[in-house]
Amino acid sequence: MRRSYKFLLRPTVGQAIALTACLNDHRALYNAALEHRRTAYAKAGVSVRYGEQSADLKHIRAADAGGQGRWSFSSQQATLRRLDRAFAAFFARLKAGRTPGFPRFKGTGRFDTVEWPRDGDGCRWDSQPEHPSAAYVRLQGVGHVRVHRHRPVRGVVKTISVKREGFRWHVIVSCDAVPAEALPATGAAVGIDLRVASLVATSHGGLLDNPRYLAASADRIASAQRALARRKRGSTRRRKQVARIAALHAKVRRRRLDGAHKAALALVGGYDVIVCEDLRITNMTRRAASRPDGEGGYLPSGAAAKSGLNRSILDAGWGVFLTILSHKAESAGRELIAVNPANTSRTCACCGHCAKENRRTQAEFACTACGHSAHADVNAAINILRAGLALREAAEAA
């Protein structure tokens, strides 16, 4: 299986300056290649492809030996492939009839990653294996950068990427042939229902806490945003304040990711079969549509309440949690089943009666047919588990 490892870099001051220059030169290459494609099509109706732009790299590097010529040829090819993928995605959306977003030029804060497509070609993971206590990665034009390697890297290293997040630098190592670490069988199965008040309700009645990391940091972020509004555009103080805000959001993201890993690990460690809902979170968090009232105004749409619900769903990190859960389940040899979420919260787990009136409040479920009462999300988790086991039995019978 394939796995990526993300580690914090500990560059010196000189190395941090070199990493910033590397990032800026790759961004300039990306923007120049995009301008080349736009101009060629606008002036001559010619579509420029990746192969032609990759062939031009030789001349670009020779003409700018102290700039573009400093960096790895392969990493620059990866940047051109990134632009090519952006155009491929644009034309795919256009063909599918969706509203396409044309590839845009990248500003300073919109280009934060450089990739080296092959270990040993312009980069080298664990470049000083003889060092007794520290790990290093060697990057062409930067040198041997110290890595805070907090866990071992398994498998065969394929690609290496460097990413800037606020004031920090990270290295992402992607490996193939990572051995699976199957956990001992437990013989247990569980259904889970994702919530806002708590992150997960299980079919066994358990609730996993939702720490609401964004809400906990909302005051500090709001204060930083107000300070940003007072900064003059283009000033050094404004750039530093933008980086501070990015660092606050990065901390929220790291805490949410850590919480999702711990919650997923608890489920994977305790159950052989985990059944969840096949949620379309992007659709669930769309803003409420406005409806004209025919008199020049709009009918009440509940946009404010919907906005608050969307914020709570995104703060809970359902998508991050489900992604991590699927990866951990695959690595541990567990079975993850996704079921249709329709009516799972309205159906009685005791008698099967389905009605909107069964769910009286967010947390209270009381069946209008048989009188069964339970926590609404635990009742939904039981229904999810049954639906998943039914799908599993049908697949085995086929």
Automatic annotation (TrEMBL):
The Swiss-Prot or TrEMBL record describes its family as follows: In the C-terminal section; belongs to the transposase 35 family. In the N-terminal section; belongs to the transposase 2 family.
Keywords assigned by UniProt, alphabetized: DNA recombination, DNA-binding, Metal-binding, Transposition, Zinc
**InterPro entries (UniProt xref):** Cas12f1-like_TNB, RNA-guided_DNA_endo/Transpos, Transposase, Transposase_put_HTH
- UniProt domain Probable transposase IS891/IS1136/IS1341: residue ranges: 181-287
Pfam families per the UniProt record, alphabetical: Cas12f1-like_TNB, HTH_OrfB_IS605, OrfB_IS605
GO terms, biological process: DNA recombination; transposition
> Could you tell me which species this protein originates from?
Streptosporangium minutum
Domain (Transposase putative helix-turn-helix): residue spans on this chain: 1-43
The name this protein goes by in its record: Transposase
Q: Which GO terms describe its molecular function?
A: DNA binding; metal ion binding
